[in-house]
Amino acid sequence: MFPILTPAQVKRIAAHGVLRSIRPGEVLIEAGARVVPFFVITAGRVEAVRPSGKGETLVTIHAPGQFTGEVNMLSGRPALVQSRVIESGEVIELNREQLLALVQTDSELGELIMRAFIVRRVELIAHGLGDVVLVGSNHCSGTLRVKEFLTRNGHPYSYIDLDRDADVQELLDRFHLTPADVPVLICRGEALLRNPTNQEIAACLGFNESIDQTHIRDLVIVGAGPAGLAAAVYAASEGLDVLVLETNAPGGQAGSSSKIENYLGFPTGISGQALAGRAYTQAQKFGAQVMITKDAKRLLCERKPYAIEIDDDVRVLARTLIIATGATYRTPSLDGLSRFEGAGVYFGATFMEAQLCRGEEVVVVGGGNSAGQAAVYLAQTAKRVHMLVRASGLAESMSRYLIRRIEQNPAIVLRTNTEIAKLEGTNHLEQVLWRDGQSGEIETYDIRHVFVMTGAVPATQWLVECVALDAKGFIKTGPDLSQEDLAAARWPLARPPHLLETSLLGVFAVGDVRGGNIKRVASAVGEGSIAISFVHQVLSE
Ligand SMILES: Cc1cc2nc3c(=O)[nH]c(=O)nc-3n(C[C@H](O)[C@H](O)[C@H](O)COP(=O)(O)OP(=O)(O)OC[C@H]3O[C@@H](n4cnc5c(N)ncnc54)[C@H](O)[C@@H]3O)c2cc1C
């Protein structure tokens, strides 16, 4: 976390910045400062403290050979700790651009500095040393939303639990708060936000402050799931000027996965949160800028450069665009469904899930082709597959060949007019209760695995009629585009669209939002990175 640089390393850093003297009491970085330089101490001592209402918490003391900073240096967000000189000496000072140039060009120093920054942030999070105090209750959905938002954005916060902390009444009185105001966020010691939206939190914490929204970008990527983040890493590392827009937090669906076990290179698995955090930092290291809580509201595709309308009627301009907005799974509104995601509730039936429920009874929910395929596939290894369909039959929603296979398979029990009433368990799903739609009768079964195959809805509403979509609303790309699609879109070039290119020149679709995509983290990452080579070709066209 606090490595000591060798004289040779210090010399290499000095070539990027300026040397200056420091004296005791001098504040090098103020907590909350928006412009945050990077300092290497060559003589003297600098302490890092986190100021709070109750005083200060000492984070560390930097000695000669050590350096200040954490991941905020890369994102350009306000400083979380104050750096103050306690012993006179000398420092090398680099601004943010000089630091980015250093970590991008000097691989040894880049690795050392990045690792220290990331571990420091992890420590700040672990000790709740941030500029945010959250007052809430674990029984309140608003509190859980804010916690998730801060966590998924890797922002440290301290938490005061209304149900547990003894001195909470004093705090409520001091700020004239009632329990109805929770969750309450005390933000940067300046603002008190009552049940804030994620946008309000991002604005208060200055998540997007350093990002220029006015100049024309080589590439705008919409969505910071695995596909969008992969595209950002490749594009920025190959010198493109990249802006990413994200509604919520980096990571997308993968960010909500407790453990991804089939992603290459992580033999013991990796949590979606950890994977997203790393990818996000990696994209920023190469200079990609990521705007959080900024939705693409509308694409204006009749003009060049393309304009993407974000909040408050602000538009960002792009020479090329990558759509990586993913899809959301249609989930029955059921108590406990999200609690058991990955712990008995699954949205895909692959070899991995099939192994998890080998020899056990499983439930497949849904009457479409994806549900049918899942039932047939799982019946090869499961003891019994209960297929729950709300309608009175499958004929309307499923291909004939699949219906036949289901009917002929003794391991599959088709239950029409049936829907799940409740899911129960502690850490893992243990019991499924389902209701007969005609009699209203509820039956309880000891079943530990439910596959929700009710389809995914692509996030394409904001595209209006700019790109050709398939029958289910997913974006058509490359060879999937018919001559009629291209004629309707008035495709302007003699060449056909590139792989992953939509019916709109220079606009690409990658990941789950793309028609025919295999809904996996690896394929999203692969498509995001492949698209960049075509972006280069379009930019040079
Ligand atoms: C619980 C769960 C567990 C999973 N586990 C695995 C697994 O173990 N292995 C595996 O390979 N796959 C797994 N998957 C599937 C995998 O997560 C997805 O295939 C992958 O995340 C798709 O990536 P994506 O970037 O295309 O889309 P997404 O991950 O859906 O990301 C899209 C992003 O775009 C943002 N967005 C949407 N609309 C807009 C807009 N208008 N403006 C700005 N931003 C927008 C969203 O907020 C989101 O962050 C899992 C999925 C879930 C839900």
In words, what does this structure look like?
This protein has 14 helices and 26 strands. The chain has 541 residues and is α/β, with parallel strands linked by helices. Strands 10, 11, 12, 13, 14, 15 and 26 form a 7-stranded mixed beta sheet that branches. Strands 1, 2, 3, 4 and 5 form a 5-stranded antiparallel beta sheet that branches. Strands 17-24-18-19-20 form a 5-stranded parallel beta sheet. Strand 3 (38-52) and strand 4 form a beta hairpin. It starts with 6 loop residues before the first helix and ends with a helix. It binds flavin-adenine dinucleotide.
Tell me the major beta sheet.
Answer: 7 strands, mixed
- β-strand percent reads 25-35%
Low-confidence stretches: none
Residue-averaged pLDDT, rounded? 92
Distance between the termini: 46 Å
SSE-based structural type:
alpha/beta
How do you describe this structure in short?
This protein is α/β, with parallel strands linked by helices.
Features:
541 residues; alpha/beta; seven-stranded mixed β-sheet; five-stranded antiparallel β-sheet; 26% strand; binds flavin-adenine dinucleotide
What is the strand and helix layout of this fold?
Elements lengths: L6 H8 L3 E5 L4 E3 L8 E15 L2 E8 L9 H4 L6 E13 L1 H10 L1 H20 L5 E5 L4 H12 L5 E4 L6 H7 L9 E4 L3 E4 L3 H7 L12 E6 L3 H12 L4 E5 L25 H14 L3 E4 L5 E3 L5 E5 L3 E10 L3 E3 L15 E2 L4 H6 L4 E5 L3 H10 L5 E5 L11 H9 L3 E4 L2 E8 L3 E8 L5 E4 L4 E3 L3 E3 L24 H6 L18 E3 L11 H19 L2
Parallel strand pairs: 6-7, 10-11, 10-15, 11-12, 15-26, 17-24, 18-19, 18-24, 19-20
Antiparallel strand pairs: 1-5, 2-5, 3-4, 3-5, 6-8, 8-9, 13-14, 14-15, 16-25, 21-22, 22-23
Helix pairs in contact: 3-4, 8-9, 8-14, 11-12
The chain binds flavin-adenine dinucleotide (FAD).
